[in-house]
């Protein structure tokens, strides 16, 4: 903060002067803003997208070369943050002595010295100086801290202040910013973020970083026992959860339910429910009827074979598709006969599909569930097999960043909701009586200190009447 | 829903308040200003009731959550917060000058929310990522911050207009004369920026804590996060310019307008960029 009345006696070192200027701060902040804006406008290379097959156009190659396709991990941002940190430290060091002097001060400029200003308000009184000063001290003490009482140039002086600690608010904010930057750096150096997909029943002790380019191996394994997803009536997901088991050696060491917004911490790592999907290997309930015969059904998975002994046919389940051409679940069957092969799809929602596209079964015989007469097949139910997408992270910088954010916020509160209010009372004999003079100063709210001074004199008058 | 109906009606009440503030300037009679304040207050009361009803309705639907979860609800809350802060400012400063500049943003938000076919007013259930106790604190602090910046923006425009006093004639002259003096505007602008800055800081911090729980990382450089940081930095520059270099008046007003542009982009523009904060698209 600019403090009037203090001049720096230090010889200006050009480098020091450069790094201690607020102009540099503003320039650096402007550059960081520019980079951040570019980072949201230029498509950024997502870690997951960083696959080798990614086609390069000339523009993309240029962006890559300038490291503008990964701005938030680029040297540009790191250099700017480094310079900003240096600037913050030097700025703070530069201004700290003045703040410390203001903090320790116990009086305004000596009344006899040329820099002294006349008091802001005065009040004549008949009390003798000593008594007036005592009364004022009692009144001031209610809201201010009395720091000094002395005599100079033929007058008695009383110096009181409040909120002197607010002088350090700005340093707390700057320290908070530095701690956040340090925490972020620690996180990017020592932390990681990895992913693994586990189908129900599957377990893994390996997770993948940077779109699968790197692996990380744990000395434990995590198993997905069950995955469940519930939907609202409108089709939006309501909740998804994975039942996880952590196994070390042959021992189950931890079991827990993982939900979005409630991660599991295990062995210093945090597991998050990041995504889910349908894994291959789901099963279906397939039923069929021979002519007017009885309906039979079977639970089958891809690759299974259904023997139809009456017709010496084998029905192979070739593919199970979650959503076939936007027409819902379907299964691809191949019927092997001694002399020929018949291939067709059986849709679960065939009735609705026919209603929406009349005649589709005749036009596209492959979609006819009765293509192998006299059998008619139907897909009754699909038992999806889900996989759960886990994110595994470790960030030793996170608590540091949290501490920095706390400092930053606390400092902001100090800066904006308090201020150093200083009041000096002079009592002197003038003419036949006593004259009280009050001066005030505030680094934040001059009007509030003015009000405080006025109240002091009002209370004094009231007490005397 | 009754609440949606009330909120559409509130749009017209706010429009009425705007017209009354306008009449106050045109006729130079404070009676219109008093009427404007009461109209705005009535609209605000209606909006508060509607928000409470919507909250209750969501429980009746069995998906109970605070009305802060989609674009419609955010627009309505933004307007509500802006009017609330403006009414407080008007009461504290006993000046109605900013009314004519503050009512239009609130009015536009309400009109867009109520009448745009692109904005669905249905109460939707919360998707898993939004089912968190951090939802309320994060959204409330962000939007109160945006509201304070909106008022600061209106004051910045006033501050720039006030500088032209003496060069204009007629209606403009009368309007400029009605404005408080430049120093008072500047002081009020600073207070609004400070309030907005603290709330935006809170919004970013609560958002980070939430992201740490839901996304596995407190900061992902998602466009909304990045733009909120840009906004924060612009206002940080403004505060440094004022507190360290002693800037006042026009230069501060220009920075304030720049900051508000960043607020608008953080709120609306970012929806056109891909990212994690896609809840506001519907």
Key structural traits:
heterodimer, A: 465 residues, 5-stranded antiparallel beta sheet, 10 helices, 18 strands, disordered N terminus, B: mainly alpha
Q: What is the N-to-C succession of helices and strands of chain A? A: HHHHEHEEHEEEEEEEEEEEEHHEHEEH
Q: Unreliable stretches of chain A, pLDDT < 50, 5 or more residues?
A: 1-8, 47-55
The overall strand count of chain B is 0
Radius of gyration of chain B: 19 Å
Q: Helix amount of chain A, in percent?
A: 25-40%
Q: Characterize the main sheet of chain A.
A: 5 strands, antiparallel
State Rg of chain A. Answer: 39 Å
- The whole-number mean of residue pLDDT values of chain B reads 90
* Average pLDDT, all residues of chain A: 86
Q: Major β-sheet of chain B, in short?
A: none
Helix content of chain B: over 70%
Provide the low-confidence segments of chain B as ranges: none
The number of helical segments of chain A is 10
Tell the overall outline of chain A. Answer: elongated
Largest interface, chains and sizes: A-B, 46 and 42 residues
User: Outline of chain B, from the CA principal axes?
Assistant: globular
Backbone structural class of chain B: mainly alpha
Number of domains of chain B: 2
Q: Estimate the strand proportion of chain A.
A: 35-45%
Structure write-up:
The complex is a heterodimer of chains A (465) and B (282). Helix content of chain A is 32%, strand content 37%. Chain A has 10 helices and 18 strands. Chain A has helices at residues 14-19, 22-41, 58-65, 75-104, 129-141, 169-190, 350-356, 360-363, 398-417, 446-464; strands at residues 121-125, 145-152, 155-162, 192-199, 203-209, 214-231, 237-248, 251-259, 264-266, 269-290, 295-301, 305-308, 313-321, 330-336, 341-347, 375-394, 421-430, 433-442. Chain A has a 5-stranded antiparallel β-sheet. In chain A, strands 4, 9, 10, 11 and 16 form a 5-stranded antiparallel β-sheet that branches. Chain B is an all-alpha fold. Chain B is globular, with a radius of gyration of 19 Å. The interface between A and B is large, with 46 and 42 residues.
């Amino acid at each position: 903060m600019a403090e009037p009345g203090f001049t720096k006696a230090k010889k200006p070192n050009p480098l020091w002067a450069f790094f201690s200027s607020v102009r540099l701060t503003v320039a650096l902040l402007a550059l960081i803003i520019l980079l951040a804006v570019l980072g949201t406008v230029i498509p950024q290379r997502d870690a997951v997208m960083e696959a080798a097959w990614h086609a390069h156009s000339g523009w993309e190659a240029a962006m890559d070369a300038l490291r503008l396709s990964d701005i938030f991990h680029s040297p540009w941002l790191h250099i700017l943050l480094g310079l900003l940190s240096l600037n913050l430290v030097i700025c703070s060091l530069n201004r700290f002595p003045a703040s410390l002097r203001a903090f320790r001060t116990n009086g305004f400029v000596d009344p006899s010295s040329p820099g002294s200003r006349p008091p802001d308000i005065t009040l004549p009184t008949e009390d003798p100086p000593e008594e007036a000063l005592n009364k004022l001290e009692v009144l001031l003490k209610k809201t201010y801290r009395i720091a000094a009482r002395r005599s100079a140039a033929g007058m008695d002086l009383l110096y009181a202040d409040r909120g002197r600690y607010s002088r350090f608010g700005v340093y707390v904010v700057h320290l908070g910013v530095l701690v956040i930057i340090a925490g972020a750096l620690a996180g990017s150096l020592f932390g990681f973020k990895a992913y693994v997909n586990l189908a129900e029943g599957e377990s893994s002790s390996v997770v993948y970083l940077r779109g699968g380019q790197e692996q990380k191996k744990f000395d434990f394994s995590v198993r997905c026992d069950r995955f469940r997803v519930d939907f609202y009536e409108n089709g939006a997901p309501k909740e998804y959860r994975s039942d996880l088991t952590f196994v070390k050696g042959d021992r189950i060491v931890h079991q827990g339910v993982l939900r979005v917004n409630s991660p599991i911490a295990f062995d210093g790592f945090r597991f998050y429910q990041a995504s889910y999907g349908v894994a291959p290997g789901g099963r279906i309930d397939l039923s069929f009827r021979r002519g007017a015969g009885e309906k039979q059904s079977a639970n089958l998975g891809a690759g299974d074979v259904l023997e139809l002994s009456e017709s010496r046919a084998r029905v192979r389940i070739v593919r199970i598709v979650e959503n076939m051409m936007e027409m819902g679940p379907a299964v691809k069957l191949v019927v092997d006969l001694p002399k020929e092969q018949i291939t067709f799809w059986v849709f679960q929602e065939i009735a609705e599909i026919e209603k929406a596209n009349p005649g589709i079964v005749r036009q596209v015989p492959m979609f006819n569930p009765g293509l192998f007469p006299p059998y008619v097949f139907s897909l009754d139910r699909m038992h999806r097999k889900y996989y759960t997408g886990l994110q595994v992270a470790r960030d030793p910088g996170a608590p540091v960043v949290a501490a920095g954010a706390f400092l930053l916020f606390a400092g902001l509160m100090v800066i904006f909701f308090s201020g150093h209010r200083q009041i000096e009372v002079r009592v002197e004999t003038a003419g036949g009586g006593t004259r009280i003079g009050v001066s005030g100063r505030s680094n934040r709210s001059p009007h509030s200190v003015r009000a405080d001074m006025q109240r002091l004199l009002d209370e004094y008058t009231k007490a005397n009447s | 829903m009754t609440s949606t109906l009330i909120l559409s009606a509130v749009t017209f009440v706010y429009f009425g308040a705007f017209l009354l503030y306008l009449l106050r300037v045109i006729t130079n009679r404070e009676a219109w200003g008093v009427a404007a304040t009461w109209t705005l207050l009535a609209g605000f009361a209606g909006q508060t009731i509607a928000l409470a009803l919507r909250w209750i309705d969501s429980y009746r639907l069995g998906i109970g959550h605070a009305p802060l979860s989609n674009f419609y609800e955010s627009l309505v809350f933004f307007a509500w917060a802006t009017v609330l802060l403006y009414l407080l400012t008007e009461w504290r400063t006993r000046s109605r000058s900013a009314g004519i500049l503050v009512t239009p943003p609130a009015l536009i938000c309400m009109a867009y929310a109520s009448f745009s076919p692109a904005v669905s007013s249905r109460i939707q259930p919360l998707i898993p990522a939004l089912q968190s106790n951090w939802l309320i604190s994060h959204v409330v602090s962000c939007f109160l911050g945006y509201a304070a910046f909106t008022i600061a923006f209106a004051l910045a425009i006033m501050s720039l207009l006030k500088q032209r006093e003496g060069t204009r004639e007629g209606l403009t002259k009368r309007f400029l004369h009605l404005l408080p003096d430049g120093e008072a505007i500047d002081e009020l602008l600073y207070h609004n920026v400070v309030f907005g800055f603290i709330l935006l800081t809170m919004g970013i911090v609560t958002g980070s804590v939430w992201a740490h729980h839901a996304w596995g990382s407190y900061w992902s450089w998602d466009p909304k996060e990045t733009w909120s940081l840009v906004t924060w930095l612009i206002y940080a520059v403004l505060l440094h310019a004022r507190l360290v270099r002693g800037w006042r008046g026009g230069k501060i007003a220009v920075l304030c307008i720049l900051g508000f542009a960043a607020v608008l982009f953080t709120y609306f523009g970012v929806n056109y960029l891909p990212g994690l904060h896609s809840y506001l698209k519907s």
